[in-house]
Amino acid sequence: MSSRKPAYITTPIYYVNDRPHIGHAYTTTLCDVWARAMRLDGREVFFLTGTDEHGAKVEKSAKERGVTPQALADENSAEFRQVLALFGLTNDDFIRTTEARHESQVKLFVERLMKSGDIYLGEFEGWYDEGQEEYVTDTRAKELEYKSPISGRPLVRAKEHNYYFKLSAYQGKLEAFFAANPQFVRPSGRFNEVLGRMRDGLQDVPVTRTNFSWGIAMPGAPEHVIYVWIDALFNYATALGLGDSSSALAKERAKFWPPEYHVIGKEILWFHAVIWPAMLMALDLPMPKCVYAHSFWISNGQKMSKSLGNFIDLPTIQSYFDTYGLDAWRWYMTTQGPIGTQDADFSPKHFHEIYTANLVNTFANCASRTSSMMEKYFAGVMPAADTASMPISAVAGAPTWSVFANAAVAKTLKHYADFELAEAGDCALSIVRAVDAIINETQPFKLAKDPSKIDEVARILAACAEGVRVAAVLLSPIMPNKCAEVLAAYGCSIDGVGSITDAAHWGGLKAGTRVCKCAPFMRVDAPVIV
Ligand code: ME8
What we know:
Layout: E1 7-15, H1 22-40, E2 45-52, H2 56-65, H3 69-86, E3 93-96, H4 100-115, E4 119-129, E5 134-136, H5 138-143, E6 156-165, H6 171-180, E7 185-186, H7 188-198, E8 205-206, E9 208-209, E10 217-218, E11 221-226, H8 228-233, H9 235-238, H10 248-253, E12 261-265, H11 269-282, E13 291-294, E14 297-299, H12 314-324, H13 326-336, E15 344-346, H14 348-378, H15 401-417, H16 421-442, H17 444-447, H18 454-475, H19 480-489, H20 500-503
Parallel strand pairs: 1-2, 1-12, 2-3, 7-13, 12-13, 14-15
Antiparallel strand pairs: 4-5, 4-6, 6-8, 9-11, 10-11
């Protein structure tokens, strides 16, 4: 194991009052790709996901279904866990906020914050809609002419005691931290949104509620329930046992703190970029390195919503698995998803085009052409040939294979580490494109007709086979199954490698290795329409 710092990556924990859909699968897949890449590079990784199970919404859904909130949480949390298996996701733990290990630590954290004065009992007064059991802001109350928009009954002036977190006290510290860490929120466009909102000034936030009971009771004041968001954010720390540093869990896992990436959707950025860091400052815990907020998948140009019923749900995703396979789905998610500041439209036609262009016509075509020619001209055995000093093309100034490929390996690895996952995929594929180009340029299938050219054919095919192998190593975090299949056909594997740089170093495919025919992605006639 390398001496580098262990790596920690997290997804949001998902609400159990919703069914899993493309959005949840997307965030978790991105984290999985990163976790696999870092493990392949010899780092010790902790990859966390889980479910967010408390709160008024879960309580309400359970009531409507005539079950207890815990029963609803158990059922839906199990469904989220099934997704992990279905998508080949390699999380190291799955945390549930109703677990005793989480609840007990949340109480310890909250007690610490009360002791330090960061959480205090305050009073809140506002306009209350009794039918809806919710407060409305002063502005909204005025707009509504002080009547409930649902029942028409007058809004009442109500007072409530709540516990508050002293967020306002952290304005200056957060500003200083943000200024010193320009990569703290990515992409940068999202950071600017946070900085803009910071200028309005931070107000203390309520951390308890009294209008429902499905949650963690406030220590010393059980009529108060800890607000679901505060409860949920702590999951990142409770999973490592940080609430009780003398626990066995902390002894084993505390080394993973702080997280390298909290990966989330853009809608929950404020909680992760402002409230959570302030809580960590109050607890004296080191800051996460980066909160990465991606944008949203939309469906045929429209926002996905329950009312439109247009979520790309699990049965729909299953139909893509059936037609194109899991790895094709992972490729599409990783390279075409809304990882930047733009939303991404999920369309069956676009999926099909990307599958055909990148996977069938590029990756599979090269792996298959090379292995077939190897079979035909060299009985499926890698010939001895010096490819390292051979230029990748006849064009003047073209780099040698070893220089070109080793540079692509270093670049791909950097992209993975920096969470530039689409760029990592593209960079790995650039090696395949170079293989394709040399086959088209030199036409080894024509040269092979002339027995005096057999050494030249051997050199070309040896370079092609090594190129395919290196690309398959680099693409493994995104397409683990298909790459393992290609690597096995090329007589190798990534099991037990010490680092990507070693595994993908030019020259790893030794003369005499058996190379078998393979065709990892088959052509599909028409897009899936569900
Ligand atoms: O917000 N496109 O849980 P949640 C891409 N429990 N990603 C999407 C998406 C879409 N259309 N829709 C959802 C919660 N997501 C809280 C989080 S964390 C301490 C508590 C993904 O079930 C994205 O990652 O609503 C988003 O942030 C998350 O699902 C929200 O999941």
